[in-house]
Design goal:
- This protein is α/β, with parallel strands linked by helices.
- It contains 17 helices and 16 strands.
- 39% of the residues lie in helices and 19% in strands.
- Helix 3 links the parallel strand 3 and strand 4.
- Helix 9 packs parallel to helix 10 and helix 16 packs parallel to helix 17.
- The longest helix has 19 residues.
- It starts with 6 loop residues before the first strand and ends in a 5-residue tail after the last helix.
Length: 525
């Protein structure tokens, strides 16, 4: 059976930027657009050129990028009420963006027309028709987003369909049904799309939001019911609970349902693309993100691990390499020696199941977890521990630290950290740095101290810092577990430290983090 082709329409740069905490510079938008083009995305919605100077600048700059696969789209609304399309500032701004395709949205829910626009229902239909017709007359491909379509169809199906007819008759190439509030269920989406598909006999698209956690399911259901275009954002970023995440949508459609979205080889870029967009957004990757998350193919229980070793299909729905991800075996007291062996293989360490070193590593892991360590989310610390036990852990540096001049309780609290470092047995050097707190100061001082001998440590950035009390009944003498996540341009890793002193626990995790960086860096050669 020949697979049906689905257009992938990315709105990360426009709808995604409306997410809380997301702010793209023009350069950010250009970088993401180029990566999307390399992936083979069909449409990239660049922004609303009439809304702000940043989007105007993006459309000017993207012309110079010479994209190979993607069509850049300008986004905006229909004309204002009782204004000629040729006189409407928004439509003029869309044309000024000089893109070959334009997406405009209009109202399909009569309640919005009456209560938000406060205009006649017929005038709203004229706004849609006039806007599409005018842009078409200027030689533009016009995609029409029917905002709030599913709510509108539920309230007044006759009027909602009239809004689509107005856009279709005016020349819109695709009619996109939008679940703008994100409140529709997949069964309803499927039925409505099928109904509209039969009545319109025109290419349909789907645009869903994730307010009920159904964004991906609704997009997939719509395609199965006849939609030919799917809109969404990378990693599901967007307003409120976000847009549907294009990554699992594309993977589900192509790997599970025999639709064709991207080239087969392009799916292998999904994991790196997800990490890249998180990097540009300055957001922490979701470990449980389907297909591309760090935990998507992670196994902890010994029974699971043993089964996956014999046949990965026992606990994995696809080969992780198909989407550029990899299998993870989480080292813990539950994993047993099989897990130790598999982790060692990942790192190029040759261990046998019955070897004394393997038993010793497992014993150390179990002992340390009993003391409060948790290694399943701190692979970097596990690898360093393993190499230390078998005598293959290179000593890159020796360091001690102390905290000085800690000031709290005023408007500008700061802390000074002093790190004393020795590399290769050379003379101990002392580095002082000030930070917003003891951990920040320690991290800055350690990085600065190492950078002279190992310049690549400057690439290391701290992503996440988590503290957990291990034995709360001990009161103020309780042990704390600190897990810190870091990244550089190539990878993400986590380390762990445990102590009754939170600063000491943090220091252990920091030292492990930089040792791991050096282990993986060319500087370590």
């Amino acid at each position: 059976m020949t697979s049906r082709k689905i257009e992938v329409y990315d709105t990360t740069l426009r709808d995604g930027s409306q997410g809380e905490g997301i702010s793209f510079s023009v350069q950010d938008k250009l970088l993401i657009a180029k990566r999307l083009d390399e992936l083979g995305v069909h449409f990239i919605e660049g922004g609303w050129p009439g809304a702000n100077p940043k989007d105007i600048a993006f459309f000017e700059e993207i012309k110079k990028a010479k994209l190979k696969h993607s069509t850049v789209v300008a986004f905006g609304s229909t004309r204002k009420a009782h204004v000629k399309a040729s006189d409407d500032d928004n439509l003029r701004g869309l044309l000024a963006a000089d893109t070959s395709a334009i997406t405009i949205f209009g109202k399909s829910w009569d309640m919005h027309v009456r209560e938000v626009f406060k205009i006649e229902l017929e005038e709203n239909l004229r706004m849609i028709e006039d806007s599409v017709s005018y842009l078409k007359s200027k030689g533009k491909k016009v995609i029409y987003d029917a905002e709030h379509f599913f709510d509108g169809y539920a309230a007044n199906p006759e009027y909602a369909l009239k809004s689509l007819v107005a856009a279709r008759e005016a020349g819109a190439s695709t009619l996109v049904l939008c679940d703008t509030n994100g409140g529709t269920m997949p069964s309803t989406v499927a039925k409505v799309v099928a109904d509209v598909h039969a009545k319109m006999k025109h290419p349909l698209g789907i645009h869903t939001h994730n307010d009920c956690g159904m964004g991906v399911a609704n997009a997939v259901a719509a395609v199965q019911a006849g939609a030919l275009q799917v809109q969404g954002t990378i990693n599901g970023i967007g307003e409120r609970c976000g847009n549907c995440d294009l990554i699992p949508v594309v993977a589900n459609l192509q790997l599970k349902l025999n639709f064709h979205c991207l080239g087969e080889d392009k799916l292998q870029e999904l994991t790196n693309l997800s990490l890249f967009v998180n990097e540009v957004c300055n957001t922490v990757p979701a470990k449980g993100q389907p297909y591309v998350g760090q935990s998507a193919f992670a196994h902890k229980g010994g029974v699971h691990i043993d089964a996956v070793k014999k046949n990965p299909a026992t606990y994995e729905h696809i080969d992780p390499t198909v989407v550029g991800n990899s299998r993870k075996h989480l080292v813990s007291e539950m994993g047993g020696r099989t897990n130790i062996i598999l982790k060692a293989q990942e790192w190029g360490i040759d261990l046998k199941k019955d070897a004394p070193e393997t038993k010793k590593i497992l014993h150390h892991v179990q002992t340390l977890e009993n003391e409060g360590y948790q290694f399943e989310g701190a692979d970097a610390s596990v690898e360093l521990l393993m190499r230390k036990i078998i005598g293959k852990r290179k000593e890159f540096f020796k360091a001690t630290a102390e905290i000085k001049n800690e000031r709290i309780g005023d408007e500008n609290p700061d802390t000074q950290a002093i790190v004393k470092l020795s590399v290769g047995g050379q003379k101990v050097k002392e580095t002082k740095k000030t930070g917003d707190g003891p951990v920040d100061a320690l991290g800055k001082a350690l990085q600065a101290a190492l950078a002279e001998d190992y310049p690549k440590v400057r690439e290391v950035q701290l992503d996440d810092y988590k503290v957990r009390i291990v034995n709360s009944k001990a009161g103020t003498a309780a042990k704390v577990r600190v897990v810190i996540e870091f990244h550089d341009k190539d990878r993400v890793w986590s380390t762990v430290g445990v102590s009754t002193n939170i600063i000491e626990a943090s220091w252990k995790a920091l030292v492990d983090a930089y040792e791991y960086k050096l282990l993986r860096s060319s500087d370590a050669a």
